[in-house]
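Anyone up for a design puzzle?
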């Protein structure tokens, strides 16, 4: 039996074991989907505390419940570990690690490279390696495969590599990992077949493309599309505000057109692990081909400028409505997660906004029902350890202004409408309370 037949047989008989490396917002839902469909998985994370927590049946993500983890454990379909030597036990290795930018907006592939080196240490004949982290086209061919081949094994002879981009949308209850179509790309037809068979065990729809580079381009295109359109409505927000036009009302009316229009919404800036970061991966790679990416870079500039726009609107609102300076004002920020109804703080626009406000002398507290404490980040280390004001302790009337930054459903907006002296609303949530329009400034 040749290598492809051996792997195919494992998949068809249910003997295949997945190895998910990185148990975060991408890896853990993937494990849950595998277990729900009877596919055994070993989860790998460099943090032993995370592995221990999962093995006790507890999840640290709101998007994956304790019940899902407990089910997988009870059925013997999941185990978490920090012992990377156990990579040899898994057959289909899935890399789900961060791909951030450095301070110069240059791709930082160190997590992918380090993980690939670790895999190379334990690589064996019959492994299939899938990268799910978002990156620039060519990463599998130029970065991952050469590192794996340092093991002495050869791609397409001893092991196979594929690219299958993650498409998670934390907080979106309409879609789960298994119901989101899965794009897969590989440079050999045998690898593509194996990828489709494996992912097809626990994903409803698998979408093949001709090679890994195409699959990499699919993911980055999806995120550039969103980044550019969000930048467009953010720019329109600023222009229409100057004209005395409510951009949210414009969008609500425009989306009644049943063709040729798709609504995007403005906000205080972009956050999360994809949209603020991924477009710059293509911009960086395009330089190799002497191709400008003016559209992408302009969109990035607009979106990055939004926290400063909210700062300016806050200063104007305090001066216009309360005859107060920003310096010395007490502000309450509602929400620091990057999007509503999740506990994900990655690249949150709340953090640069807090820094900007405090540089101007404001005193900023925050309330977030999903984030009790801000975790340290490499760009905003000074905010690490700050705690959310608990709901029972909230004295909204004591603040000079309330800033709506993340529109969590769990926030009591009726209380805000009743008690706040001044509201700076970057998410249009206060539109449901027309009686407070005179003390609300949209930002």
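Challenge accepted. My sequence:
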């Amino acid at each position: 039996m040749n290598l492809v037949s051996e792997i195919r047989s494992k998949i068809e008989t249910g003997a295949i074991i997945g190895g998910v490396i990185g148990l975060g917002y991408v890896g853990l839902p993937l494990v849950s989907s595998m277990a729900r469909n009877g596919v055994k998985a070993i989860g790998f994370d460099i943090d032993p505390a995370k592995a221990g927590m999962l093995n006790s049946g507890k999840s640290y993500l709101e998007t994956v419940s304790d019940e899902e983890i407990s089910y997988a454990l009870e059925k013997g379909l999941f185990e978490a570990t920090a012992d990377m030597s156990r990579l040899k036990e898994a057959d289909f290795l899935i890399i789900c690690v961060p791909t951030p930018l450095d301070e110069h907006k240059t791709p930082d592939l160190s997590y992918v490279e380090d993980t690939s080196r670790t895999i190379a240490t334990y690589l064996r004949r019959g492994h299939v390696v899938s990268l799910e982290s978002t990156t620039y086209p060519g990463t599998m061919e130029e970065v991952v495969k050469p590192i794996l081949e340092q093991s002495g094994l050869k791609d397409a002879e001893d092991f196979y590599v594929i690219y299958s981009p993650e498409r998670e949308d934390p907080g979106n209850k309409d879609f789960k990992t298994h119901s989101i179509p899965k794009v897969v790309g590989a440079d050999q037809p045998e690898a593509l077949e194996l990828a489709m068979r494996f992912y097809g065990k626990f994903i409803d729809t698998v979408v093949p493309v001709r090679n890994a580079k195409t699959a990499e381009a699919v993911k980055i295109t999806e995120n550039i599309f969103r980044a550019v359109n969000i930048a467009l409505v953010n720019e329109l927000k600023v222009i229409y505000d100057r004209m005395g036009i409510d951009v949210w009302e414009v969008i609500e009316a425009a989306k009644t057109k049943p063709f040729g229009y798709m609504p995007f919404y403005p906000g205080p800036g972009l956050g999360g692990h994809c949209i603020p970061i991924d477009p710059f991966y293509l911009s960086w790679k395009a330089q190799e081909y002497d191709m400008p990416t003016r559209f992408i870079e302009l969109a990035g500039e607009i979106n990055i400028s939004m926290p400063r726009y909210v700062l300016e609107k806050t200063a104007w609102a305090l001066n216009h409505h309360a005859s107060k300076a920003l310096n010395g004002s007490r502000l309450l920020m509602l929400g620091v997660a990057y999007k509503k109804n999740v506990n994900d703080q990655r690249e949150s626009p709340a953090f640069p906004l807090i820094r900007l406000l405090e540089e101007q002398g404001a005193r900023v507290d925050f309330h977030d029902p999903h984030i009790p404490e801000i975790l340290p980040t490499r760009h905003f280390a000074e905010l690490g350890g700050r705690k959310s004001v608990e709901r029972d302790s909230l004295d909204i009337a004591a603040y000079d202004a309330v800033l709506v930054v993340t529109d969590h459903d769990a926030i009591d907006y009726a209380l805000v409408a009743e008690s706040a002296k001044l509201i700076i609303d970057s998410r249009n949530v206060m539109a449901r309370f027309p009686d407070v329009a005179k003390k609300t400034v949209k930002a």
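A detail worth pointing out: Residues 226-442 form a domain with the Rossmann fold fold (CATH 3.40.50.720).
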